[in-house]
């Protein structure tokens, strides 16, 4: 699992308890690939975040299942960030 201490680009929210991050891409194809990779991550983990997207942006919102953010939410956020890290290393 990715390092949860590196989640400084995620915004936290109090009502409802959660966190969100906006990702920007240079093309629709990159956006689609990220969404496909995120779908695979959701299928593997069983966690499905709220998504808002357009041609070159995706906002991922993770809401806590309890009254506070826990390891599941932080772990999913870290793995979401890792999707892009792995793409950057492959390029």
UniProtKB/TrEMBL annotation:
InterPro entries: PCD_sf. Keywords: Lyase. It comes from the Bacteria. GO terms for molecular function: 4-alpha-hydroxytetrahydrobiopterin dehydratase activity. Its EC number is 4.2.1.96. This is 4a-hydroxytetrahydrobiopterin dehydratase. It comes from Thiothrix litoralis.
